[in-house]
Amino acid sequence: MVTRIVDLRSDTVTKPTEAMRAAMASAEVDDDVLGYDPTAFRLETEMAKTMGKEAALFVPSGTMGNLVSVLVHCDVRGSEVILGDNCHINIFENGGIATIGGVHPRQVKNNDDGTIDIDLIEAAIRDPMGELFYPTTKLICLENTHANSGGRCLSVEYTDRVGELAKKHGLKLHIDGARIFNASVALGVPVDRLVQAADSVSVCLSKGIGAPVGSVIVGSKNFIAKARRLRKTLGGGMRQIGLLCAAALVALQENVGKLESDHKKARLLADGLKEVKGLRVDAGSVETNMVFIDIEEGTKTRAEKICKYMEERGILVMQESSSRSCFPSATFSLL
């Protein structure tokens, strides 16, 4: 009989700590749509300071955060954003930038480490002389950490180079920083320095740092003013969100410091799994809190069977395909 469940499906399945629940219960709140919620103001002020930007805005989800950010930068329908073909915005956000914003995604191949070759990015920028025929390039998007690459980190040097390229061509740079704190800890680079080159960043509160709900986008005061209006248009304007922001403040204070331990446990797990016959794990690519497992060709099993076998023994994992299992994101701080 299973007496304990170890849930490694995702770092999105964390539960609020007692400190978070207490903070939510006692949170001072007001109407945030009217701009008066004091706890939301505290969170946004803290996040802007932490990320080295002028202002911040709480949004219900990372998907909305990325969508709002892209639409602020690409404010004319028919604009184009350059992004990686394997990035979260391109694959997992329901095509929102195109279907809702009329923004064309110019996909460029991601490398195994989540980067995109600088020369390929530059080659993808549209020639303004062809504006009669082509979409107008407005934005470059990066993702750090890069989830589909196994949580790999984009270095500050690489990000700076992309930022310089964007400025050279009069473009903006947005970073999908859903797990930017993981990248900061893994690289040993202050988070504000890591995103210094970006015009905007979305930061998830409910993944690696374990808050129950929400993301924050950061940028200039002008950017956030436009983002606030778009958030309302998309249905993301909520009232007493201080209840949620209170838990996020606890997460920032208590859980960022635990990420290094998460990463060490992920590497320990990867080192053990790579010794299992029939499984292939690139332990060297485990830089943060994600472990991907591939089933070797010729092995007489499937990911579905492995996942079920582990579930019967109290270990929950996630299947990506018939040959790939199990942790699109494994969070270890709760083990």
From TrEMBL:
GO terms for cellular component: cytosol. The modification N6-(pyridoxal phosphate)lysine is found at K207. Keywords: Pyridoxal phosphate. One of its GO terms (molecular function) is L-allo-threonine aldolase activity. Pfam families: Beta_elim_lyase. Residues 7-294 form the Aromatic amino acid beta-eliminating lyase/threonine aldolase domain. GO terms for biological process: glycine biosynthetic process; L-threonine catabolic process. The keyword Nucleotidyltransferase does not apply. It comes from the Eukaryota. The keyword Metal-binding does not apply. Its cofactor is pyridoxal 5'-phosphate. Belongs to the threonine aldolase family. PANTHER family: L-THREONINE ALDOLASE, L-THREONINE ALDOLASE-RELATED. This is Putative low-specificity L-threonine aldolase 1 isoform D.
